[in-house]
Amino acid sequence: MDVKTFVEILGSDFFTGVPDSQLRALCDYLMKTYGLNPDHHIIAANEGNALALASGYHLTTGKIPVVYMQNSGLGNIVNPSTSLTNPKVYNIPVIFIIGWRGEPGVHDEPQHIYQGEKTLDMLDLLGIKYFVIDKDTIQHELESVMKEFREILRDGHDVSFIIKKGALSYSEKVAYQNENFMLREEIIRHIINFSGDNPIISTTGKTSRELFELRTTHQRDFLTVGSMGHASSIALGVALNKPNHKVWCIDGDGAALMHMGALAVIGSLKPKNLVHVVINNSAHESVGGLPTVAKNINLPEIAKACGYAKTFSVENYEALDEALKFASDNEGLTFIEAKAKIGARENLGRPTTTAIENKNAFAEYVRNL
Question: What pTM was computed for the model?
Answer without folding.
Answer: 0.96
